C-alpha cells in the first residue's frame, strides 16, 4: 500500500516571469475543498471552466481563470489534482499563491508532483527520470531518448528481466522444497542455463560504450594544438560567433573556452585550450596542464595543426586512433597527406574552406558515440551499477555449490534490478532522483 499523504501542494507549472498565461497546479487530498474555496464550485472532471477566483477570507477577486479538475486516481499524481490557468502577471500569480496558502495548501518541493505519481504507482523510477530528462532536453535526440524512457521503454525491459528471474527463483525454490518429489529431469541445470542466458543479455546491454549517458549529458570535444595553429579561430568558426579571443600573439588562450553545439541532435561542448609548448610563465603552464587534462577527459580530441608550420611534437603525442586531425590555415599552404598516420581534414577558419566537411565529420563522430537508435539505452550511472551487480549475482549461479546458494543469488539479482525501477529498496535514492526536477513537476 502507498504511504498516506495528507497535505496538498501547489506550484507554478509554467515559466517564471510575465506571460500571457500562467499555470498553477495543485495535488493532494484537500484539492477539491481548496478549489471550491477559490472558485465557488468544482468544474466537471477534465473540462476547462471559466471562473472568478476569490480570496477565501476577504472574497477579493484575484483573477478570471480557467479551472480544470482531475479527480484521483485518474490524474498525473494519482491524487485529486487541479490546474488554474491564470493571467500571467506576477501580481496575479503572487495573489493566487497567497490565497492557496490561506486555503490550506503549501508550496511544493522540486519534483514533488512526480514523486507523488511514483508513490501512487502511476510510474516507476526510470519513467520519472525520463520525465526529468525530457524537461532538460536541449536537442531533438535528447528529447527522443527521454520520451522513450518516460513512456516506459526501460521499465518494460527491466521488468521483463525481473519477471524471468522471479520465474527462475520459483523453479529453484521448487527444486529445494520438493527435491524428493517427481520433478522434471534436469530442473536445476535448466535454471542455471537460463540464468546464464539472461546474464549474457544484461552484459550485452551494458556493453553500449555509455552511448545513452553520453547523449543525456552531452559529448566533450577538446581542441588541442600548438600556439598559433588557429584553434581559437576554428572554435569561433564552428560556433558562428566570437567566443574566443583571436590574436597573432602566441599563448593568448590561457584557460579553457567552451561553446555548446548541436551536432545531428547530439549536444556537444567544444573546448578551446591553451597552445601546447614548453612554457615558463606560470599562468601559461597551468593553462597547458588544464588543456592536457581536458583532452584526457574528452570523448573526442580535435588535434589542430597549421598548414604553414611543421607538425609539432606536443600535438603529435595526441594523434592516436580515434583522434580527429585537422589542418587549419589551408589558405596559406597545402595540407600534408597524413599526420601521424591519419588523413587530416584541411580547413581554413578564415575563408571557410573545409568547414562543412569538418562539421559533417564531427556530427558523424557524435552520432557514433551517442545512443541514437530506437532501442532502450542506459542513461544513468545508477542503472549501470545495479545491472552490473545483477549480472554478478547471476554469474554466481554457475559456481554456487548448493541449490540454496543459487536461490539466494537469484534473490540478490532480483533486488538489484528492482532498485532501478523502484520496486525494492529505493529510499536511499529517492531524494537524489527527484532532486533533479524543477519545482512544479
Automatic annotation (TrEMBL):
<keyword id="KW-0342">GTP-binding</keyword>
<comment type="similarity">
    <text>Belongs to the TRAFAC class TrmE-Era-EngA-EngB-Septin-like GTPase superfamily. TrmE GTPase family.</text>
</comment>
<dbReference type="Pfam" id="PF10396">
    <property type="entry name" value="TrmE_N"/>
</dbReference>
<keyword id="KW-0963">Cytoplasm</keyword>
<dbReference type="InterPro" id="IPR018948">
    <property type="entry name" value="GTP-bd_TrmE_N"/>
</dbReference>
<dbReference type="InterPro" id="IPR031168">
    <property type="entry name" value="G_TrmE"/>
</dbReference>
<feature type="domain" description="TrmE-type G">
    <location>
        <begin position="218"/>
        <end position="367"/>
    </location>
</feature>
<feature type="binding site">
    <location>
        <position position="83"/>
    </location>
    <ligand>
        <name>(6S)-5-formyl-5,6,7,8-tetrahydrofolate</name>
    </ligand>
</feature>
<dbReference type="InterPro" id="IPR005225">
    <property type="entry name" value="Small_GTP-bd"/>
</dbReference>
<dbReference type="InterPro" id="IPR027368">
    <property type="entry name" value="MnmE_dom2"/>
</dbReference>
<dbReference type="Pfam" id="PF01926">
    <property type="entry name" value="MMR_HSR1"/>
</dbReference>
<feature type="binding site">
    <location>
        <begin position="247"/>
        <end position="253"/>
    </location>
    <ligand>
        <name>GTP</name>
    </ligand>
</feature>
<dbReference type="InterPro" id="IPR004520">
    <property type="entry name" value="GTPase_MnmE"/>
</dbReference>
<keyword id="KW-0378">Hydrolase</keyword>
<feature type="binding site">
    <location>
        <begin position="228"/>
        <end position="233"/>
    </location>
    <ligand>
        <name>GTP</name>
    </ligand>
</feature>
<dbReference type="InterPro" id="IPR025867">
    <property type="entry name" value="MnmE_helical"/>
</dbReference>
<dbReference type="InterPro" id="IPR006073">
    <property type="entry name" value="GTP-bd"/>
</dbReference>
<dbReference type="InterPro" id="IPR027266">
    <property type="entry name" value="TrmE/GcvT-like"/>
</dbReference>
<protein>
    <recommendedName>
        <fullName>tRNA modification GTPase MnmE</fullName>
        <ecNumber>3.6.-.-</ecNumber>
    </recommendedName>
</protein>
<keyword id="KW-0819">tRNA processing</keyword>
<feature type="binding site">
    <location>
        <position position="253"/>
    </location>
    <ligand>
        <name>Mg(2+)</name>
    </ligand>
</feature>
<feature type="binding site">
    <location>
        <position position="441"/>
    </location>
    <ligand>
        <name>(6S)-5-formyl-5,6,7,8-tetrahydrofolate</name>
    </ligand>
</feature>
<comment type="function">
    <text>Exhibits a very high intrinsic GTPase hydrolysis rate. Involved in the addition of a carboxymethylaminomethyl (cmnm) group at the wobble position (U34) of certain tRNAs, forming tRNA-cmnm(5)s(2)U34.</text>
</comment>
<feature type="binding site">
    <location>
        <position position="232"/>
    </location>
    <ligand>
        <name>Mg(2+)</name>
    </ligand>
</feature>
<keyword id="KW-0547">Nucleotide-binding</keyword>
<feature type="binding site">
    <location>
        <position position="122"/>
    </location>
    <ligand>
        <name>(6S)-5-formyl-5,6,7,8-tetrahydrofolate</name>
    </ligand>
</feature>
<dbReference type="Pfam" id="PF12631">
    <property type="entry name" value="MnmE_helical"/>
</dbReference>
<feature type="binding site">
    <location>
        <begin position="272"/>
        <end position="275"/>
    </location>
    <ligand>
        <name>GTP</name>
    </ligand>
</feature>
<keyword id="KW-0479">Metal-binding</keyword>
<dbReference type="InterPro" id="IPR027417">
    <property type="entry name" value="P-loop_NTPase"/>
</dbReference>
<keyword id="KW-0460">Magnesium</keyword>
<keyword id="KW-0630">Potassium</keyword>
<feature type="binding site">
    <location>
        <position position="25"/>
    </location>
    <ligand>
        <name>(6S)-5-formyl-5,6,7,8-tetrahydrofolate</name>
    </ligand>
</feature>
<comment type="subunit">
    <text>Homodimer. Heterotetramer of two MnmE and two MnmG subunits.</text>
</comment>
